[in-house]
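Hi W.,

Here's what went into the run:
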Amino acid sequence: MMTGNTAAAWAARLADVDYVPAYPITPQTEIIETIAKWTSEGVMKAKLIQLESEHSMLTAAGTASLTGARVFTATSSQGLLYGFEMLYSIAGWRAPIVLVNVSRGVAAPITLEPDHNDVLAARDSGFMQFHAETCQEVLDLILIAYRVSEDKQIMLPSIVNMDGFYLSFTREPVRLPSPKTVADFLPPYEAFKPFRANTSVVKGPPVLGGHIYTYFKYNLHESMNRALAVFEKAAEEYRHLTERDLRLCEGFMLEDAEYVLVMTNSFTTAGRKAVKLLRERNIPAGLLKITVVRPFPKKQIVDALRNRKAVAVFDQNISLGLGGILYNEIAGTLYHAKNRPETILSVVGGLGGKYIALEEFETIFDLLIHPEKIDSTEPVFLFRKDELRDVEKALKLAGCGGWFG
Amino acid sequence: MRTLLLGTPVLLKVRFHGRGGQGVKTSCRILGRAAFLTGYVAQDSPIYGAERRGAPVAGFTRIADQPILERGYIFDPHILIVMDETLLEDWMAKPLEGLVDGGIVFINTSHHQHFPETNNHYIVVEHNLTDEALDIIGKPVISAPAAAAAAKLTGVIEKQALLEATAEELYEIGLDDETIQKNLHVVSNVFEKVPTVPHRFNEAPAARRQVISLTVGKVVLHEISNMGNAYLRRTGNWRIFRPVVDYEKCTGCMICFIYCPDSVISLDEANKPVIDYDNCKGCMICMVECPLRAISAVREGKIVA
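Here's what came out:
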């Protein structure tokens, strides 16, 4: 039994990382606390340093990686955003670090509970993104992330995402692979022309004239795209070694499903329950979980969703003024697909960790079965009457009725 | 909107090349405003990289008699204004690149004849703006005189508009009245002295550039030797004045060695300074700091790089 945070710390330990720059933030702190305990006991060899901010932390992470050190670090929400500009630099430097983001809604209002606006803000940065549903997947995906990141065809950093509280502080059984298994799976990291005190090395030089910039950006994009196949190969090997099956995206009761719900991260577990229940009522429901969000597995998503009657994309995030982020990516991906589902519904829910009740899942599938009820220009915003009463009570206590009454 | 004179293109493109601190941005702005005040459609913009004195800078002014449907770098100028002759040999600035056939190159030079008198492809006009600026303004800042040269060479700018534009732009960057008056004086001189050159631009249709589908197919790391490499770049040609040590007066106190911001002063056995003229930018801090006034400023007369 271990929490998602402990699973992440174990993955770093098993990957035999050299350097862990850190800065505390809830709900990520337990990862670093665990590693700190191990390094002080001497059971983990890594050098752990606390920096003065996430910006420094990420700068240290990227530059250390360029010396040839295997680097692990973790942050969350505000911390990720505070270090944000370095994400693009680290990717551009081709520094294959692994960063765990423990998702937490971004202030204001301030919260500690999860949604994915933090991690999805980084979706264009050049970090690959692997999103975990379970504590086991946290561990598995970190190990696979190192393997893919450090692959000579890829050389890009990764973010492994887990939901705060729902995974970070939730204990469940996690199987640890043996150090020998991990060593077989994960060869030592080999940096290209690493920084050394006595040689001049150029990393990320200034370029003026957009063509050089374009060339390098395109090169990053190409490497990202190659990572789909590299991930699949790594996952296959991992499957042989550990019997755990990780996919770019994964179907649940999908084979004959007509109504499909697309999800990511830990809320997928609740989605599975809802799908099972609908199946008991003879409704051909199914679920598609997307594990690898960057690179975006377009082909696999199209293959999984074509020929379905109706698809709902559940976004635990909101691009204010547009809607769900993944909905728009998936709708764009499906546009050119033959036999694409006629109905693609956008659902926004779980913001700030808001619980999704079974009734809310039922509402989603009801709309998929009766698409005439859908307003295709706006996402369905999951909210319940009991929740509204609760909010209104809090507003009344605060003596606030809002500007318009 | 005024119609451009017969024989000129519908869109007249002027490119300025200079060094950070010379006033390239102001030059292209003065020309832009002068064209606007004359009644044309105008557009001006600068481009620069590292924001530091001495680095190559370019400025662009477009003049037209109808809305201008392009922006950014001017690749095929009709008129080139080279504000610093040492840039002619700069492999990064490449000031002559792209000049249209029959185009005009203006070179600010203290020693004439960079080019043969006759050239089949472009017309060269040379003039010493720096010494004119030093004489009248007292500083080697040539934004306004360079704009005046450009305005004359366009053949379409009215002198009154040029003076008005100069005053306005220099006021906007915060110059005092006296300095503005001196600049107007130089502008007037330069506008009169620079010859009228008839436009015989021969704009051949540009060779078609092939659009490709980019495939790199491997990870390209950043081991790229980019332009501006500090080791390869000789910054000695940024100098307008050269620090010259009077070794009779020098006591070897090492103060110049300590103050030199670019570490181009080394010491010989007697602790006397040896200046690396390949890289000295001519900031003259050594001259100011020397307690014995043993370092003097000598106007540069030739290209060192």
